[in-house]
Design goal:
Number of helices: 12
Structural class: mainly alpha
Distance between the termini: 80 Å
Number of domains: 1
Number of strands: 0
């Protein structure tokens, strides 16, 4: 009898350890497969001459954009896409290239962020699972429309206006004092809409999904960690769609954002419970409005 109990405990412990390990194994395996495929198909882009000419002052700027955007996203649970896209558009990067760069880089940064949040116990697995599938479907549709149907240059001012709306949402959420706790309904619809707008606009998963869930009174730590974990699947789906229909464009931006984001991800996971959210949300919102207004001004 005692032997059976020991076997049962050993089996349960093995299952627990396996499930825990999958949170690390799955993102890493998917990223390794992606890098292998991209390396095989686009190795000609990465000649020594191309790499040497691509590592320039702009590369350094993109690198710091990646660090800043990931610090914002990892601590607030929102803002990577909005922050990085606003910065890229303000630098004159076309919408299709900026959105592709942001979402391909997010494959890696959100993977690192998901692992970091899991390590620090910031994830509600039930919430994460509820967001993944509808979020993925919405992101695939948005990425397809932007990369193969919609003229990116034509919608650039509209994306800038969308970014201003996202920034306004972030600021309003920061200024709200009393939050009445209520159960968030229709998580599937919320995730689908968030994934679609995130792909087509270059950002929005966090401001739409995280802010809605936090607005319903959910615990900030678990909401931010769970939405960040689900964002890996959403970003992977949209990034893969962009690559499928548009190929690799702006590899300097992609690599710089990836390196900056991966560097900042574990730092952000540690800061999530230590930093004052409201002042940072207001500051980020104002920054996005300024950058997006600058982009709009070019079309006047």
């Amino acid at each position: 009898m005692i032997g059976k109990l020991k076997d049962l405990n050993t089996s349960s412990q093995f299952d627990f350890n396996l499930k825990k390990a999958l949170w690390y194994i799955i993102p890493i395996m998917l990223l390794v497969i992606l890098v292998s495929i991209l390396g095989y198909n686009y190795y000609s882009l990465f000649t020594w001459q191309n790499v040497k000419s691509g590592i320039n002052f702009n590369f350094v700027i993109f690198f710091f954009i990646g660090i800043f955007a990931q610090l914002v996203d990892g601590t607030l649970g929102m803002g990577y896409g909005a922050t990085s896209t606003s910065c890229l558009l303000a630098m004159g990067v076309p919408p299709a290239i900026s959105s592709t760069a942001v979402h391909v880089s997010e494959m890696f940064t959100t993977g690192a962020s998901a692992i970091a949040h899991h390590k620090f116990g910031n994830i509600n697995k039930k919430l994460t699972k509820s967001l993944i599938i509808p979020g993925v479907l919405g992101s695939i549709l948005g990425a397809y429309l932007l990369s193969d149907v919609i003229n990116g240059d034509a919608i650039k001012p509209f994306i800038a206006m969308y970014m201003i709306c996202l920034a306004t949402i972030i600021i309003i959420k920061a200024l709200r004092k009393n939050i009445i706790k209520k159960k968030a309904k229709r998580l599937g619809i919320l995730a689908t809409f968030g994934g679609f707008m995130d792909a087509i606009g270059g950002g929005g998963w966090g401001p739409i999904v995280t802010s809605t869930l936090l607005g319903s009174g959910r615990h900030a730590k678990y909401t931010i960690g769970s939405v960040n974990a689900a964002e890996f699947a959403v970003s992977f789906a949209s990034g893969a769609t962009f690559l499928l229909f548009g190929g690799i464009v702006g590899w300097q931006i992609i690599i710089a954002l990836i390196l900056g984001g991966i560097l900042a991800a574990p730092i952000a996971a540690i800061l999530v419970n230590k930093i004052k959210r409201k002042p940072m949300m207001i500051a980020v919102g104002i920054l996005i409005i300024i950058l997006s207004t600058k982009t709009l001004y070019k079309f006047l």
